[in-house]
Here is the input.
Amino acid sequence: MIWYTALVVAVAFERLAELVVSNRNAAWSLARGGVESGRRHYAVMVVLHTGLLVGCLVEVWWRQPPFIPALGLSMLALVVASQALRWWCIATLGRQWNTRVIVVPGLPRVTSGPYRFLSHPNYVAVVVEGFALPLVHSAWVTAAVFTVCNAVLLGVRLRVENRALAGLTPSSARSTAAHAAS
Here is the structure.
């Protein structure tokens, strides 16, 4: 359980690094006329993603589920892959990436990097991490609760983001929305 705690703490530090990048980039976007949408759901997103990390630790330390090597190691590989995808998204969007929904008029829409393949690759990283991180140490309850809550939140988030981009042509808009926190 010690190594699992270290993993969750490492993910928490990674999330803090994301927030530093996100805050800097949000200020950059807003200074260039960016328009923010979806402020009401943002606090819920922060609570949910914090709850994922806390839930992982509480469930494992309280319930003490067994570590199942085949499950744990395959889920660890997915956690690492989700982090790589998330940072690929961040690198691709550059200064325009942040955890909020901000559209900067006049900037081209990103169609390179992982955005060549998916409209919302960062959300794929969030979904994968959301079930994989708890399952590294058999935290089934946390994985299930986060997955259901995150599905509802992502439904809201995608509607907000798509509305923010509505009416803007692909060559004149770029979404700086990503995840969360994640």
Summary: The radius of gyration is 17 Å. Residues 169-182 have pLDDT under 50 and may be disordered. DSSP finds five helices and two strands in the chain. The first strand starts at residue 35 and ends at 37.
